[in-house]
Amino acid sequence: MFNLDTKVDPNVKENRHKFVGGSDIPTILGINKYKTQFQLAQEKLGIKPSEFHGNEYTEYGNALEPQIREYINVVNDTHFSPDTRIDYDKHIRSNTDGYDPEHQGILEIKTHGKNLNTKPYIAQMQLYMYQFDVDWGWLALYERPDNFDATFDASRLKIEVIDRDEEYIQHILDAIETFWIRCEYLKEKPNMTEQEFMGIGQNELTIVAKQVEKLEFDLLKYKEIEKHYKDMKQRLYELMEEYDVKKWETDHIMITRILPGKRESFDSTRFKKEHPELAEQYKKISKTTGSVRIKLKEAN
Question: pLDDT tens for residues 202-217?
Answer without folding.
Answer: 766 666 777 788 888 8
